Protein backbone atom coordinates (compact mmCIF):
# COMPACT_ATOMS: atom_id res chain seq x y z
CA UNK A 1 0.00 0.00 0.00
CA UNK A 2 2.82 2.36 0.83
CA UNK A 3 4.38 1.83 -2.59
CA UNK A 4 1.15 2.80 -4.36
CA UNK A 5 0.79 5.97 -2.29
CA UNK A 6 4.46 6.81 -2.83
CA UNK A 7 4.14 6.47 -6.64
CA UNK A 8 0.99 8.60 -6.62
CA UNK A 9 2.81 11.15 -4.42
CA UNK A 10 5.64 11.41 -6.96
CA UNK A 11 3.17 11.90 -9.80
CA UNK A 12 1.39 14.63 -7.84
CA UNK A 13 4.72 16.26 -6.96
CA UNK A 14 5.85 16.41 -10.57
CA UNK A 15 2.42 17.71 -11.64
CA UNK A 16 2.48 20.43 -8.99
CA UNK A 17 5.95 21.57 -10.03
CA UNK A 18 4.94 21.63 -13.69
CA UNK A 19 1.76 23.61 -13.08
CA UNK A 20 3.53 26.20 -10.92
CA UNK A 21 6.34 26.64 -13.47
CA UNK A 22 3.90 26.99 -16.38
CA UNK A 23 1.79 29.68 -14.70
CA UNK A 24 2.18 33.16 -16.13
CA UNK A 25 3.80 35.69 -13.83
CA UNK A 26 1.71 38.22 -11.94
CA UNK A 27 3.24 41.02 -13.97
CA UNK A 28 2.41 39.40 -17.31
CA UNK A 29 0.50 41.80 -19.50
CA UNK A 30 0.88 44.84 -17.25
CA UNK A 31 2.02 48.07 -18.80
CA UNK A 32 3.26 50.96 -16.72
CA UNK A 33 1.99 53.49 -19.23
CA UNK A 34 -1.51 53.97 -20.52
CA UNK A 35 -3.51 52.98 -17.46
CA UNK A 36 -2.11 49.50 -17.00
CA UNK A 37 -2.73 49.55 -13.27
CA UNK A 38 -6.34 50.60 -13.75
CA UNK A 39 -7.09 47.53 -15.82
CA UNK A 40 -5.42 45.27 -13.31
CA UNK A 41 -8.05 45.69 -10.62
CA UNK A 42 -10.98 44.87 -12.90
CA UNK A 43 -9.26 42.05 -14.78
CA UNK A 44 -10.86 38.61 -14.62
CA UNK A 45 -8.95 35.37 -14.96
CA UNK A 46 -9.43 33.79 -18.36
CA UNK A 47 -8.49 30.61 -20.14
CA UNK A 48 -5.23 29.00 -19.17
CA UNK A 49 -4.64 31.32 -16.24
CA UNK A 50 -7.85 30.11 -14.60
CA UNK A 51 -7.09 26.49 -15.44
CA UNK A 52 -3.58 26.67 -13.97
CA UNK A 53 -4.92 28.37 -10.86
CA UNK A 54 -7.45 25.58 -10.26
CA UNK A 55 -4.94 22.84 -11.06
CA UNK A 56 -2.47 24.34 -8.58
CA UNK A 57 -5.07 24.14 -5.81
CA UNK A 58 -6.01 20.54 -6.67
CA UNK A 59 -2.40 19.39 -6.90
CA UNK A 60 -1.54 21.14 -3.61
CA UNK A 61 -4.44 19.43 -1.82
CA UNK A 62 -3.45 16.06 -3.30
CA UNK A 63 0.16 16.67 -2.23
CA UNK A 64 -0.89 17.38 1.36
CA UNK A 65 -3.18 14.34 1.50
CA UNK A 66 -0.55 11.98 0.12
CA UNK A 67 2.07 13.44 2.47
CA UNK A 68 -0.17 12.78 5.46
CA UNK A 69 -1.00 9.30 4.17
CA UNK A 70 2.69 8.47 3.83
CA UNK A 71 3.36 9.75 7.34
CA UNK A 72 0.62 7.56 8.80
CA UNK A 73 1.68 4.52 6.78
CA UNK A 74 5.28 4.84 8.03
CA UNK A 75 4.17 4.60 11.69
Question: In summary, what is this structure?
Answer:
The protein has 75 residues and is mainly α. 73% of the residues lie in helices and 0% in strands.
How many DSSP E strands? 0
Order of helices and strands: HHH
Helix content estimate: over 70%
Mean pLDDT: 83
Descriptive notes:
It is elongated, with a radius of gyration of 18 Å. The longest helix is centred in the C-terminal third of the chain and has 28 residues, at 47-74. It contains three helices and no strands. It has helices spanning 2-22, 36-41, 47-74. With 75 residues, the protein is an all-alpha fold.
Protein traits:
75 residues, 3 helices, 0% strand, elongated
Topology:
Layout: H1 2-22, H2 36-41, H3 47-74
Helix pairs in contact: 1-3
